[in-house]
């Protein structure tokens, strides 16, 4: 069984689907941070230096295992020379 087939089966379970939906913001943050960092050709360490934080903080954000403050997100956006957008989508 490949991942797409397995994922489709998992999503049939309402509890699994609910948890995946709940984690979507962390996933989107991680994806966009990784993409921006790679586009700027920065390592996690280099980004951390520019954002005045540590590499572990960047790693946790990219893995989706932390919930950053708005202050940290602003620092990272500035270090990436990027705009930070936060929105509620109804």
UniProtKB/TrEMBL annotation:
One of its GO terms (molecular function) is DNA binding. CDD domains: HTH_XRE. Residues 33-88 form the HTH cro/C1-type domain. It comes from the Bacteria. This is HTH cro/C1-type domain-containing protein. It comes from Candidatus Amesbacteria bacterium RIFCSPHIGHO2_12_FULL_48_14.
